[in-house]
Amino acid sequence: MKKVLITPLDWGLGHATRCIPIIRELISRGCSVSIGGSGDSLTLLRNEFPSLSFFDLPGYNPVYPSSGSMVWKMASQLSKFRKVIRDEHDAVERISHENKIDLIISDNRYGCWSEKIPCVFISHQTNILMPKRFGWLASMVRYLTSRMINRFDYCCIPDYPDHRSLGGQLVEFGNDSIKAKVLYMGSLSRFKPSASREKKFDVLCILSGPEPQRSMLEKVMMDQLPSSGLKYLIVRGLLSSSVVKDEQIVDFLATEKLQEAIEQSEVIIARSGFSTVMDLATLGKRAIFIPTPGQTEQEYLADTLMKKRIIFSMTQDQFDLPTAWEESKKYTGFKFPHYHDDLLKKALNEILS
User: Fold this and answer.
1) Domains and CATH numbers, the chain
2) Strand 244-246 to strand 249-250: parallel, antiparallel, or no bridges (unpaired)?
3) What are phi and psi of 250, to 5 degrees?
4) Looking at the predicted structure, is the pLDDT value of residue 25 above 60?
5) pTM of whole model > 0.85?
6) What is the pLDDT of residues 32-73, one digit of tens each?
């Protein structure tokens, strides 16, 4: 029985939620799974898998700007991030030794590797996109990213290697930049499509991501949804509470309840984070995306999917619900099937062998 340590990044909940299908598959194969992490992402996985073993890792705790440049804000925290990477590496080495771990699977935690046992790095951003005015940094960022990924034995992409790719340029590689063996895992979602449900809501608004932008988007929604005449539900994305505020606002929904709400809704309003894209693609939903201001990855995904006429997107500062609602009807939503676990199974077959 292999002992596997899973370590998701703590920037939002997406890295943790997309580890859920991996954890389920490993358990089904008889593996002993432990989870290392921090913050709400670790709490979410504790709630999903209460019988597993958990370890605390250093938290990144990134601070996002309420306005201004995201790049400069992240750059100002680089020394803190480098220290976390060093500290999490030391912690993982200790945990692996003390618990006789056979395999480490890190979701975007660059320090969670060991020279002594096989290590897997999961990422949907092998090519970190830079804003246009910082394009001159792109080659250096790609070099540094590749260098850190190459400490791992495998680089696993939660996407498809063909026309179904959701990540596009985000998962592109330089000619020889990645030395780790690249495997594709398909669209990693904690959801599995179920039988069609009766529609209950016109709009489901899922708030997510770090502060202060989460609260800023909540204010935009609360200013516009109540007077819209639409039937709506707001999930505030606050894991610290699951108290129902009223019939239209809840702090948090666990996996089963969230999938039920998504499937009962005509349109989903959400950030365009990659894990959200995978979830909605898996369930074949229509969406209105509002990318986190200054977050290049989300802006790219929203723009790309809009150009493909799949979803409609508006910026947070210009968001107008009546316009977005009408425009969204002109887009197809995610129609072609994005769920099957063959690629995940094949990737794990190779890794575990």
Assistant:
1) 3-187+339-352 (3.40.50.2000), 201-328 (3.40.50.2000)
2) antiparallel
3) -130, 155
4) yes
5) yes
6) 999 999 999 999 999 999 999 999 999 888 878 777 667 777
